[in-house]
């Protein structure tokens, strides 16, 4: 009998962390690596990923929902996530594709929940509704001191790069972003089987290597070329 490699199982990987820690860059790099290995994969983002979710993203990041309060924003994020899961994430995983997402449900828990003060029961209820059983297999939490992250964002702005979130969340003060950082670290502590914290204050190349090391330890089939 021919030794034919088994198909790799589909995986769902999310990237989390505060503003300016390099999530988007590393999502792109990971997607490129997976495709070089002939792993069928798709990159997406939250809020967003589908036309309806992108419309909600635009509304929130323009600051138009800010006056509604953190609770209403959590509901809006959950609505966007529900459509994202239904229309993109679930079908992709079902077809055997890896899904790599720049933010997912942990961001709502960190921003609106632990930092914004929205009740834990509401956050959990919205998660159950929006995820519909599609929790990430692995979450990479990129951690960086907020002051250093702010410096990164400022440099990007000076260089003319598009910083979309600057009109909503990046305008919060340093104390708020420090609490946000602690929120993500708390989420990671509470979910050690899923979350891995990686220091983000390193070069993009070094960070990429560290992330790949985490992935291959968690999903050894990436190196073996076989399903688990």
Give the SSE map.
Elements: E1 12-16, H1 23-36, E2 41-45, H2 51-61, H3 70-94, E3 98-102, H4 105-115, H5 120-131, E4 138-143, H6 146-158, H7 174-190, E5 195-199, H8 204-218, H9 221-224
Parallel strand pairs: 1-3, 1-4, 2-3, 4-5
Helix pairs in contact: 1-8, 2-3, 3-4, 3-5, 4-5, 4-7
List SSEs in N-to-C order.
EHEHHEHHEHHEHH
How many DSSP E strands? 5
| CATH superfamily placement | P-loop containing nucleotide triphosphate hydrolases
Range of strand content? 5-15%
Into how many domains do the coordinates divide? Answer: 1
Q: Strands across the major sheet, in which order?
A: 2-3-1-4-5
- Kindly provide the radius of gyration, computed on alpha-carbon positions and rounded to a whole number of angstroms: 18 Å
Keywords:
228 residues, alpha/beta, Rossmann fold, 5-stranded parallel beta sheet, disordered N terminus
């Amino acid at each position: 009998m021919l030794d034919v490699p088994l198909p790799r199982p589909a995986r769902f990987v999310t990237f989390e962390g505060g503003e300016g820690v390099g999530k988007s860059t590393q999502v792109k790099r990971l997607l490129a690596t997976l495709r070089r290995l002939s792993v069928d994969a798709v990159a997406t983002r939250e809020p967003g990923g589908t036309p309806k979710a992108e419309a909600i993203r635009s509304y929130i990041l323009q600051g138009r929902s800010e006056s509604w309060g953190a609770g209403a924003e959590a509901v809006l994020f959950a609505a966007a996530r529900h459509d994202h899961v239904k229309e993109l994430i679930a079908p992709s995983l079902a077809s055997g594709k890896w899904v790599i997402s720049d933010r997912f449900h942990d961001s709502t828990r960190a921003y609106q929940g632990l930092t914004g003060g929205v009740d834990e029961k509401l956050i959990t209820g919205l998660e159950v509704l929006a995820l519909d059983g599609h929790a990430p297999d692995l979450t990479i939490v990129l951690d960086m001191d907020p002051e250093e992250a702010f410096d990164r964002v400022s440099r990007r702005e000076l260089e003319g790069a598009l910083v979309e979130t600057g009109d909503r969340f990046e305008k919060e003060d340093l104390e708020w972003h420090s609490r946000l950082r602690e929120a993500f670290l708390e989420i990671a502590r509470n979910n050690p089987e899923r979350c891995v914290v990686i220091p983000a204050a390193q070069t993009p190349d070094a960070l990429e290597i560290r992330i790949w090391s985490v992935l291959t330890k968690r999903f050894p089939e990436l190196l073996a070329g076989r399903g688990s």
